[in-house]
Design a protein that fits this description.
1 helix; six-stranded antiparallel beta barrel; Jelly Rolls; mainly beta; 2 domains; 365 residues
């Protein structure tokens, strides 16, 4: 029987090529921090949707809410990252900047061959709906070589879902180190003061602030109620945008867990883990991550008083929780109570009688 090989070009256009998307959570389907308040945002940098970080600069005065929108559902995206302006910034200060960034791990980009004449192009595709018909800026930064490439996309019709694709040529003068650090920073600029405008577009060069909004002349933050919504973000090798890779939610969750894991205990008295008492006031539990993380993470809890220690003698409220970052697979939870633990006994750590407690671990890029 003859055996033949089907190349990517022989696949139907509706068939995704598994693993082609270098962006994690491009369809905004994973949101482990969903319970956090997302009103009055704008002053501080922070991750919100998994793998997506709000990255302001210059203490901008505008404020916004962040939510998952539905304006791109007709294009096949049930979830999106939606910014809605609640406090306008109609006179952008020179150093004011609003934008969102997602990062790609450097060791996942080695096949791009940066620094060689054969460096590969990549194509960034995405869907956007906004009430601001104007030019916006997207940029890729390769921080290992302090290089960046800025280009624009023009929203031609307000309140209309549109799809865009932008090709970034390979950088023969660039550098992407083979490690677990930031290889690419993929930036979407929403509004930028004069310090962030005027740079050279459509060419690789030294990283500079004036590239972030290089071709922008409008200000999405000039009016309360303005919005910008994005989903279907895909970065793939080559100069042609292919259909978005819709992967199973379990795959996306697993990818996101490499960088951030939140263990949300939605019911009262949920078990956290078992360990042993170190004294009458202290105990220790080894916490096992559901997946190995990118590196040794930083851990935190909703509140030190949100948990209880339970041993053969009774149940005791915790007063202090210390998360000791042990390695990429486990974390030690050290807890303190007022008194009465049985020294050396086994102990169970659980949440208290209130819902929505959590433990989190972050190894974000």
């Amino acid at each position: 029987m003859a055996v033949s090989t089907i190349s990517a070009t022989g696949l139907a256009g509706s068939v995704s090529q598994l693993g082609k998307n270098l962006i994690n959570n491009g369809a905004m389907t994973v949101d482990q921090r969903a319970g956090e308040t997302r009103t009055g945002l704008g002053a501080a940098a922070a991750y919100h949707f998994d793998q997506w970080k709000y990255t302001p600069s210059g203490s901008p005065s505008g404020r916004f809410t962040l939510s998952s929108g539905t304006g791109l559902a007709a294009l096949g995206y049930a979830n999106s990252l939606k910014v809605a302006v609640t406090t306008a910034d109609d006179a952008l200060a020179a150093p004011a900047y609003y934008g969102f960034t997602t990062y790609v791990e450097a060791q996942n980009l080695q096949h791009l061959k940066y620094g060689l004449a054969s460096a590969e192009a990549v194509t960034l595709s995405f869907a956007v709906i906004t009430d601001t018909a104007a030019e916006f800026t997207a940029m890729i930064i390769a921080p290992d070589g302090s290089r960046s490439y800025s280009t624009g996309y023009t929203v031609s019709s307000a309140d209309t879902a549109q799809e865009f694709s932008l090709t970034f040529p390979g950088d023969a003068s660039g550098t992407i180190t083979d490690n677990a650090g930031r290889g690419f920073e993929v930036v979407f600029t929403l509004a930028a003061g004069s310090n962030f405008r005027g740079g050279t577009e459509d060419a690789w060069g030294a990283e500079a602030n004036n590239k972030y909004g290089a071709g922008m002349t409008s200000n999405m933050f000039d009016t309360n109620g303005n919005y910008w919504e994005i989903s279907g973000v895909q970065l793939e090798v080559g100069s042609v945008a292919t259909d978005f890779e819709h992967e199973a939610i379990s795959q996306t969750e697993q990818k996101c867990d490499r960088y951030y894991q939140r263990y949300a205990y939605e019911t009262a008295y949920s078990p956290v883990g078992d360990g042993h008492n170190l004294s009458t006031t202290q105990g220790r539990v080894t916490f096992y991550f559901r997946q190995k993380m990118r590196g040794t993470p930083v851990g935190s809890v909703s509140n030190a008083a949100d948990f209880q220690a339970q041993d053969t003698g009774g149940t005791y409220d915790t007063t202090v929780i210390i998360l000791t970052e042990e390695n990429a697979n486990t974390m030690l939870v050290l807890f303190t109570v007022a008194s009465s633990l049985n020294d050396g006994d086994g102990v169970r750590l659980r949440t208290d009688g209130t819902v929505n407690r959590y433990i989190e671990a972050s190894a974000e890029l």
